[in-house]
Amino acid sequence: MCISILLPIFNEERYLVECLDSILAQTYPDWELLAVDDQSTDSTPQILQDYQQRDARIRSFRNPQKGVIPALRLALEHSTGALMTRMDADDIMAPAKLELMYKQLVAHGPGHLSTGLVEYFADAQLGQGYARYGEWINKVNREGRQWEEIYRDCPIPAPCWLVYKEDLLRAGAFEPDIKPEDYDLIFRFRRIGLKPLTVPEVLLYWRDHEDRTTRMNEAYDIQKYFRVKLPWFLELDHDPNRELVLWGAGPRGKTFATMLNEAKVKFRWVCDNPKKWGQQIYGVKMEAESKLREFGPMQIIISVASPIDQIAIKALLDELELKAGTDYFWFC
Q1: CB 63 within 8 A of CB 71
Q2: Over the stretch 72-126, which tens digit does the pLDDT of each residue have?
Q3: Are the beta carbons of 301 and 327 closer than 8 angstroms?
Q4: Between the CA of residue 245 and those of 249, 260, 312, what are the distances in Å?
Q5: With respect to CATH, is domain 3-220 assigned 1.25.40.340?
Q6: Domain 238-330 classification at class level
Q7: Domain Glycosyltransferase 2-like, which positions (predicted)?
């Protein structure tokens, strides 16, 4: 069964050869690579041409419309495989990546998604944020809590999933013009009910470097992630029969409060800062977090990022016997 690898590329001459070599080294041989050059100005087109001549499984295309989403659409349009995955041109596949995900996915059939563990690396020093994210995403995937943790951050690596083509199309593939496109797609996988499966091995070596798209492109800044999270929460998990509570009055909390007001969703707002208690902020009265003990049925959005504060928050939530992913949701 052929696996179609969708690979959008823009100016990746420094890393593209390593990426392509890792694909050629796969232990699973039945794959095709649809590589789309997103109007690169470096030697990317020549590298693709050279590899295409070396191996008939590689096909490259020039993207007539600039952007990663049109590039992914073009790759999908030319794909012939029954199974779909994507890859980033600055990352490296472990040799058994496709084989292990293929075996796992085919054993369970359509309606499932296969992923695996990742290992971040860097040419220089690995950023602490990426290191923490790598530890978090591996923990979530080992424990099978992808959908429970989906609002904290993207729980499935964009270059490390495998699905049936029919499921990708059912989820809307790359039709929405929404960025971060990888995060939005994972929400759509959840919406159609895909069940995540995890290969408990490192399948992807994820490169951090100074020119990484998520560092350089404003379409991937933290505010854009917020703009993806909240609408999906309101569609997938919000229970209008329960009070909605926003926990946290820092910059993140204020962003979510603004968005809830824009969506005309009523909410109560709690924080641990006595100076703010009783104040009207954005038209909502700020209350003490201890007041949660007096609230009725509720759902809580937690916008507090401090790991130390999150420990205290979790203790109170446990005391109230609230359940993650149903009664409360970590948004950072």
Answers
A1: yes
A2: 999 999 999 999 999 999 999 999 999 999 999 999 999 999 999 999 998 877 7
A3: no
A4: 12, 11, 17
A5: no
A6: alpha beta
A7: 4-168
Alpha helices in the chain (DSSP H): 16-24, 44-54, 68-77, 97-108, 128-143, 165-170, 181-191, 213-216, 222-236, 251-262, 307-319
What residue segments make up the domains of the chain, in order of their start?
Answer: 3-220, 238-330
pLDDT in tens, 150-183: 999 999 999 999 999 999 999 999 999 999 999 9
Close Cβ partners of 299 (under 8 Å, ≥ 6 residues apart): 237, 238, 239, 242, 243, 244, 245, 326, 327, 328, 329
For the chain, the distance separating the N- and C-terminal CA atoms, rounded to the nearest angstrom, is 39
Amino acid at 16: L
- Predicted TM-score of the model (pTM): 0.94
pLDDT digits (tens, 9 = 90+) for 184-229: 999 999 999 999 999 999 999 999 877 666 555 565 577 888 999 9
| 3-class secondary-structure state, position 63 | coil
Q: If we measure between CA atoms, which residue out of 237, 313, 324 comes closest to residue 272?
A: 313
